[in-house]
């Protein structure tokens, strides 16, 4: 199915006064974050009673985006010297396409997530060396049936999951006709107030080496229904952790089976490190609202040192929970300025050295369950499908990564997983894993009902 670009332009904030605003300072955490684009696609089927054409919807989305950028103006700017964002009139790349086919057919034919990348404006999860790359890019794909796929690529330089969520909700509110006004716009800058930037930062190859790898990668999604989640939670319980949460239990379960896959593929037993993203907005003093822009999360690590063949889920669950608990209010004073930079880079450098020598496996995990639900209503109804495209294995891609998100089914959780091709091959045939995790099978009854 072919995707044809019909227009490409820069959408800029509607206010002409934004050039008067001061540059938006990056925080230390933003400075340390390598640029890569986090993608998501929201699919909307055209209802029977709708008389609005896809091109009209796209035009409306463009106009409401201008208003949303008035409030989230740093998203329209460009990064300078890894210190601040300015030039808010540069704008956001906005691409419109026509897809020669029906929405249901497109998704049905592209269950391999990498195939959805043609709906994106930029390549996903790929290291970007250009420090002046846009913070945000949009592609609106219109299908012959009138269905629409709104694809968003967000730069991790200033976007974390919470930032993505509040921006999408604000944009959607403007498109529905409300103003989506932020209660206290001054708190947009709060990240750099808590963690001021350092004036001169050398390139941090440690982070890049840990997160981005070359080689053949594969992305797959698996769904845990309510019964499977309850069973995993039960298995994760121990005397040390009597009430593990769903996130802790599933994180440990994914970590366990990724370790087993890596050991099967390499025929070696080595320690494994898990780095999980922890949102710190509510852990700061004073607390910050969700709409505070920036990478307001930390990445505490947990290390599984055992090289025994039998990997205990209970032990991993305890390690995951302890890692999450380690993010206390003490970090606020610790991560300040030059000293904060030294603390973070020292720890990452040590991990990177261990991993680069082949002495440990390294994994990252993010949970979008309480931040990014993919239910944004732009006046088109709730999305029929919310998808994260796959890594396409060109070069320097995000690897050994897990993302937990809400599944379309009630009380179910979807796990988005990217591993090496070899490791994924073992995971896809791991019978214990498949007892609880079902490979994502996209069902399009809703699409068919709405489009027929």
UniProtKB/TrEMBL annotation:
Pfam families: Transferase (PF02458). The keyword Acyltransferase applies. InterPro entries: CAT-like_dom_sf. Coiled coil: none annotated. One of its GO terms (molecular function) is acyltransferase activity. Keywords: Acyltransferase, Transferase. It comes from the Eukaryota. Belongs to the plant acyltransferase family. This is Transferase.
